[in-house]
Structure to design on (297 residues):
């Protein structure tokens, strides 16, 4: 689950602001339990325990299902990530471009794989040939287990402008048949043929529906990803503020190219071959395509 610092996330923050509810989460991390079992473990009455359970359900942290004559509670999530407002860099002018998910210019993928528009799947899933279907230009989600997709976008800087920093923002996750939120995958990023770095995605998520995922899309398939921002600077490359590699903006400037070529790959020799899912507009939790922002002087 990904949260932002906004009013929509308040039910989650409120649900976590209780030692009793924290204890319930700890208990359910070990076993599914009914209200009577939870009440006994907490030393509380069943009505009080039910009130705490209701708070956690409202926040989508746990779910309760009827099994026979009992109502059994279990965890819906095993990780919560909080995104703080993005720091704005005002020192430089910026130019920004977006790349729709289906506008890749080159690919080589292996099943499980597939792609879909906001209305339906494109061709048959797990058949790479449909990645060349003409309708792929309208794709808003794609996934593959191994291989790569490559995109190109214009470098709008003029000869008198100097690139000082670049940001790449995208919603991304691993790929598992249906979904698995504990499925690490080493996903590598390249710019103009140079390796920028590798990020290990923790999983492929379907614990709750994606905020923008269309109603027709199956509940048990990858619903949303994590919004990740790669920032390339003069002293290295960072992902969400954490060091990613020693690749610098000076390395990129040496390519002196009219196009930015972005490749996203799960390598054959990766330690964790757990696939890649890319989410665009009308899918996932962020209504955006791949964004590339150039900061220049």
């Amino acid at each position: 689950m990904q949260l932002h610092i906004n009013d929509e996330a308040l039910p989650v923050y409120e649900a976590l602001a209780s030692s009793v509810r924290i204890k319930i989460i700890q208990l359910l991390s070990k076993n599914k339990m009914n209200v009577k079992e939870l009440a006994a473990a907490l030393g509380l009455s069943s009505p009080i325990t039910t009130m705490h359970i209701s708070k956690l359900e409202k926040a989508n942290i746990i779910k309760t299902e009827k099994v026979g004559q009992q109502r059994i509670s279990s965890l819906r999530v095993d990780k919560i990530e909080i995104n703080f407002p993005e720091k704005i860099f005002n020192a430089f002018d910026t130019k920004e471009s977006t790349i729709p998910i289906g506008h890749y210019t080159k690919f080589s993928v292996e099943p499980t794989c597939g792609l879909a528009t906001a209305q339906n799947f494109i061709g048959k899933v797990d058949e790479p040939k449909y990645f060349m279907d003409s309708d792929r230009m309208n794709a808003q989600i794609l996934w593959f287990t191994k291989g790569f997709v490559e995109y190109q976008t214009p470098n709008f800087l003029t000869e008198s402008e100097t690139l000082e920093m670049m940001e790449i923002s995208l919603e991304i996750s691993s790929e598992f048949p249906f979904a698995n939120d504990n499925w690490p995958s080493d996903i590598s990023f390249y710019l103009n043929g140079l390796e920028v770095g590798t990020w290990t995605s923790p999983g492929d998520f379907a614990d709750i529906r994606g905020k923008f995922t269309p109603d027709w899309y199956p509940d048990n398939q990858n619903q949303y990803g994590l919004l990740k921002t790669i920032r390339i600077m003069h002293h290295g490359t960072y992902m969400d503020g954490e060091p990613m590699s020693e690749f610098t903006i000076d390395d990129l400037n040496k390519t002196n190219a009219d196009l930015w070529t972005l490749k996203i790959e799960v390598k054959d020799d990766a330690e964790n071959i757990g696939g890649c899912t890319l989410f665009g507009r009308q899918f996932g939790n962020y209504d955006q395509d791949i964004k590339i922002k150039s900061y220049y002087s």
